[in-house]
Design goal:
This protein is α+β, with helices and mostly antiparallel strands and 194 residues long. 21% of the residues lie in helices and 33% in strands. A hairpin with a 2-residue loop joins strand 10 (144-149) and strand 11. The model has no long low-confidence stretch (mean pLDDT 91).
């Protein structure tokens, strides 16, 4: 029997550099989580609850859902994350809920990974490569957006005033990690940059 390959995080090589940041910005690679895209006609979703949470219908918002997040992606499309459920179980759970209303779900767990960016200067770091208005009066906790950060397409979530989740395609994770580290340099501990 052949040995099974060990699963490694696409940002494993960047973890030491993330840990060295001691200034006003923190970057963490979140562990793998199951993710599923769900589609349903908006007219049929009024009473639909996913893990006790109504589907966010306001554009560019997200809501806690069980152990994960339910993110609005479009008028009839959402992304559900779940760290505590296996990908195939998450997809089956959603299919069971959505089939009766003509909806569907697809496992996209391998598509994206998530980074957490926090600290008093996190918003300024994001603003260096993002064309949307990230002012705290405009982009507040509970909001999300699909945008470009540097040259990578991301889903950006405001978790708190100074805390953000950045979902990026796994194939762009290394690029984005390097970009974020570079963009964070001016806010780093001076001992790291000398």
């Amino acid at each position: 029997m052949a040995d099974q390959l060990a699963r490694t995080h696409p940002l494993e090589a960047w973890l030491p550099a993330f840990a060295e940041l001691t200034g006003a910005v923190r970057i963490d690679a979140e562990p793998f989580v199951s993710m599923a895209v769900l589609r349903a006609a908006r007219a049929t979703t009024g009473d639909l609850r996913i893990r006790g949470t109504a589907l966010p219908t306001a554009p560019n918002t997200w809501a806690p859902a069980g152990d994960g997040r339910l993110i609005w992606l479009g008028p009839d499309e959402w992304l559900l994350t779940s760290p505590g459920t296996a990908p195939e179980a998450l997809e089956e759970e959603l299919q069971t809920l959505l089939r009766p209303v003509g909806g569907s779900a697809a496992d996209v767990s391998a598509q994206r990974i998530s980074l957490r960016l926090g600290g008093p200067q996190a918003r300024q770091v994001l603003a260096k490569g993002c064309s949307i208005d990230l002012h705290p009066r405009v982009f507040t906790a509970g909001q999300s957006t699909q945008t470009a950060l540097g040259q990578a397409a991301v889903v950006l979530l405001a978790l708190d005033e100074d805390e953000f989740a950045v979902l990026v395609r796994s194939s762009f994770a290394g690029y984005l990690a390097s970009w974020l580290l570079d963009a964070s340099l001016e806010h780093a501990d001076p001992a790291l940059t000398s």
